[in-house]
Amino acid sequence: MVNKESEHPYYKERRKYPRLNTSVEIEYWVSKEDTFMKTVTKNIGAGGVCIVSEEKIGKDTILFFKIDLSDGKKFIQAKGKVVWSSEFYSSSLEKIVYNLGIEFIEISDEDRQRIYDYVIGRITPEDTLKYNNYG
Questions:
Q1: pLDDT tens per residue across span 63-97
Q2: What pLDDT score was predicted for residue 133?
Q3: How much is the pLDDT for 95?
Q4: What is the model's pTM?
């Protein structure tokens, strides 16, 4: 079961669940009728993700996700809400793009546990140092 007050030796942050700085393939869309966009995560945790988007998406927007942990199992499906957004210039894309902080609002207990196990199995002291500098 997901341990919200993680006992992992490297985990000392204010988030409900630990986050891992890693690129995980993800598809997202705004509504059932929309075409999906592909991107990667900047970080992921059992409570949500940070993704890079080429389009500006406002706070409180509801998004749908398919997440591939590349663990040989089915895609994780979730529904999330944008809780923050920040823009930055991407030199590789040569344009302004957006970091989106997403909180999962609908995800199965099994999929939340899979993400939690994925993160705990890979987290390092360097990851927690990065997180402790952010909220």
A1: 999 999 998 999 999 999 999 999 999 998 899 99
A2: 41
A3: 94
A4: 0.80
Domain boundaries, the chain: 19-123
Residue 82's nearest CA partner among 107, 64, 108 is 64
| Kind plus residue range of the DSSP H or E element containing 131 | helix 125-132
DSSP letters, 73-128, are: SPPEEEEEEEEEEEEEEETTTTEEEEEEEEEEEEE-HHHHHHHHHHHHTT--HHHH
Decide: 68 and 40 in contact? Cβ < 8 Å. Answer: no
Architecture of domain 19-123: Beta Barrel (2.40)
- Tokens (6 digits) for 115: 């993400």
